[in-house]
Structure formats: structure tokens, C-alpha cells
Amino acid sequence: MLMKKISTLCMCLLASFVVQAQGFVFQYQGRNLPDGETVIIAAEEDIFGELSCETNDLLDPDSGLVLKLLRGTSSPVTAVLQITHNSLNAASIQWCMGTECSSMNSLTSLTKRFTMGDSEGVQFDATGIGSEGYLEATLKVTIGLETHQVNIIFVNGDYDGIKEVEKFKSSIVEKGAIFDLLGRQVKRTSSGICIVREGERIRKVLIK
To answer: Using alpha carbons only, what angle is made at residue 84 by residues 22 and 149, rounded to the nearest 5 degrees?
Structure first.
């Protein structure tokens, strides 16, 4: 009987811990995002007539990407933004969070520490986009012992087509030797024509 009571108590404590485990979430357009969710935003003309991608509309910031506390009223936050790919050729990439705005310039990673109340907008944007392409970034937030991540993709043009090119490049690296037009073996491919040897088969491949 004693063991049964102890077992029941442990299960109740565990259930309580699970209920209380999640202290904050990312929300996008009012919807709670599962951890690691990807938000894809297509380029549109902004109020200045330039192509831009923005997680949050300046006129309605709460309608976009928001970090929201589920417990407590004030918490210290550590937020890390990491750009993993960028071919957008944007004139400006900026991240505003925790009452502070930072221009990325040539940086691919930034860390911010601040204290937030009930919710915090995540204003991340790329403005003056001058080419087709896409930008991929991860935003990882830690509050206390809890960490959650959201993936952000800005895209101008055919995103699926761009991803197929990236997959094709990877498959070339995995399957066969790659040579430039002078016959020199190279480890990586870039835009242009390369020569691929797969077993007895040799072919020219155009990477855009």
C-alpha cells in the first residue's frame, strides 16, 4: 500500500512538472509554434516601394512573430540569431528585439540579453532586396533552463527551385568527383559550369 501511494505521488509530481515545463512559446500571427517550426515569408513591396521581407508589420507588430511568456510576468532572456544562408543581396538586414535594433551588416550571428514582460515582438527584416534568392536564419531563445527555436526563411523568387539546386549541389558532392573546366578537381561547386564524373560517366553541369 505504501509503495502504491509513493508511486501515485511520483506520477502526480511528474504530471505537474510536464504541465509546468513550458514557460514560453513563439507565436506567429496569433498561432503557437511548435519548437523548431519554420516561418516562410515572401518578399513584398514595403511602404517605400522597395522589396522587403519582415517578420512583423511595423504598423501592427503583434500580428507577426512574437515571443510570449506562459508563466510569470518578467524574465531575463538570452536570444541568439544565426543566419545560416543568405543570397538575397539585401541592402539592409536588421533585427529588433528587447527594445534594441541591430544591423547585421556582414555579421551572421548576434546575441542579445534583456528582460521581457508578458510578450516581446521579433522584428527581423531584410529591406532593399536586389536579387532573387533566400535567407535562412534560426532564432534560439533561452529563459531560465528552457530553450526554444524558430526558423525564419525570407524568399524572393522560386524558393522550391532554389532548394532543388542546393540539393543537387549536395548530391554531386556525395556521388561523384567534380572538376572545373581546366580539369582541376574541386571540392565544392559554385555558380557556373563544372564537370562531374560518376563512375564511367562524365558530363558537364550548369549550376545557376
So the answer is: 5
